[in-house]
Protein 1
Amino acid sequence: MNLYGSRTSPYVRKVRIVMIEKRIECDFIEENVWNADTAVTLRNPLTKIPVLVLDDGMQLYDSRVIAEYLDGVTPVSRLIPDSGRERALVKRWEALGDGIADAGIALFLERKRDSSLQSKDWMARQMGKVESGVAAAARELSDREYCHGLSLTLGDISLACALLWLEFRLPEVSWRADHPNLKKWLANLEAMPSFADTKPPA
């Protein structure tokens, strides 16, 4: 299998962590989707990462689709419950993490446009989503060690990747200082090899 993506993408990092936790071997091919000659367009018509190309040539895209596929490849360290309410709650945590990242990236990209073209209302709206999402995560997590259940799930991975991306690209979002329970929860995850090995470049 080949995984196409960027080391700075929270969605790619989520998939890479899943692979490490599931002990799945895969070649990682770094791609910048903003380059005119990016090969990602040949594998995902939306020109978005991550893209996973299976050994038979099948191409999977969107981190949620890829993560769910990988979780079923091997029974090791299941990250998504099989069905019912438990599954829905873990996927809900994943949606919250991805949603925080979505809003943060929208804000980050808007800031890269010429200042005369930027929409302050749009940026304020995205920041509001980020702050609301982080606050909701802190409330729901409370003092638990994991987002759901007694072990690591895809919900933890998604939320952690989003928060760490915020720290990397939007450091003014002071979630560690504002939400000590998130800081404590994430310290445990950051100590895991799967998180340490996928840290973005400085």
Protein 2
Amino acid sequence: MMSSHLIMRRVLLTAAQNAVVTGFVRRYGMRLGAARFVAGESLDECVVVLRRLNEAGLLTNTTVLGESVRDAAMTRQVAETYVAVLDRIQREGLRTTLAVKLTHLGLEIGDELAYENIRRLTVHAGELGNFVRIDMEDSPRVDATLRIYRRLREDGLANIGTVLQSYLYRSEADLRALLPLRPNLRIVKGAYLEPPGIAYPRKADVDRNFVRLAEPMLLEGGFTAIATHDERIIAHCIDFIRAHQVPRDRFEFQMLYGVRPRLQTDLVRRGFTVRVATPHGRDWYPYLMRRLAERPANVLFMVRNLLRA
């Protein structure tokens, strides 16, 4: 039987494709609460948030929101925008890295264009002492994403990481194939609507697979980003880290801007490194709908703001 959480998730991700819902949320979403999850529509607005989070002891990453660009010239403009973001991070002295989607950089057109753009960003970030993570998108993009990640590593670029999603059956095999690289991987549950033929439909199975991915990464990987707000998984990982004496410089916890901020600061007070994903940009709608689909509490937050309005 499908859980109420999964039903809500499917409803929201399906609604994200509805023209009426899209129009309403794009028009009123920032006023009704999207700003809780998105650090502004401009880089100037985002820098203020990044600095505040850094001052609270939190590391950050930022993304220029956008995906599925099918114009080659536009993908190069996106890459140019990211170069400017890296330069601004450097000037501001922010403890902030980049997270990027390959479909924003040309993957819908072809691997070569996406590789060209992400390589440019990774090289520039390396010159500035910074780091780039390739976000994982929906299942049809997994193979291409991992191919491009491997290619960058083969180029000798070490300041690059990617993501594995624990709701996909394939992720354990993908991890085993990547471990010889001592990769820098973020482990997440997954935020896209996937069919049960390729993804675990039950939350309990997704959670168990998260732990199955995190444990070998902590022991054998290069660097592990434990990206969850699930306190049971966090507690399990902390116990595992302590039992196996995993050095503090080989992992961090990652969470989303606007989600469980008290948990974030509590982990910092306990001596753990926490990085907050802090996206910005005008194309925030798909990102917001995935955040609403992940946690019913996020939907209630938006509804309360709607009623107040």
Protein 3
Amino acid sequence: MADAAGKVQNYKNHTRNFPLFHFVAFPILALNFLNSLRHLYFSPYRQTVWEVVVAFGLVALALAARTMALTVQDRVIRLEMQQRLARVLPASMHGQIAALKRGHFVALRFASDQELPELVREICEGRLNTPKEIKMRVKDWQADWLRA
């Protein structure tokens, strides 16, 4: 499925970098932490120790915020996929929905409705285990342009 600019999403280009986090905030905070360590090495005083602690806290804060955002997003994806699977799967397969893990739901969201029953069957039989394996098997890729 193409976005407004006509770009088609597939397995090779489906990951998303959030520029403000990946290319601005996190690199600045990581460099600040490394610079604080350098200052501590050359001037091992109480103040430079505190600077390292604060710099590490800022890096941890950025990573925690990112992790929390992705966790919430994965919970929403799981809910959406549980509803979609309940609608698409035959009644005889509804019990298998509970056996799926978070990574399975996240990967399955890219599959078309027609592909879902077979993919779920293969997951439950142990033939597909990782999100990567699932995504590689998707033939009719359903784009998700809203990934955080």
Protein 4
Amino acid sequence: MKGSKKAISDFNKGYNCAQSVFSAFGEKFGINKEQSRSIAGGFGVGFGRLQETCGAVTGAIMVIGCKFLKGNEWPASKEVIYKKARDFVEKFKQRNGTVNCLELIGVNFGTEEGMRITKEKNLFREKC
């Protein structure tokens, strides 16, 4: 199964966006699903439901770091990783208009009303 399909499958099982994206690709880098889900656990819904940077974006940036870090060559790999991360964010913004979870979803999950609307309209499935 392709990574994107794995991510969607995990998201549909209840894992957050960051967990779903990072765990779909983590095994390629020697990080098992449980470790990936643990590492990415706090990044969901824009950093612990703060609705800041989208969890799918943070999960993807974790994958970029794994893919482009060459051994212990952090200083040498840093600029490559930063550029790849910036390029990814720019493409995401072009496609979606923003990387901000609140702006993407359009509902504040920090309120009871926001959570009610999210559930009623199934926004996690419709927007994420």
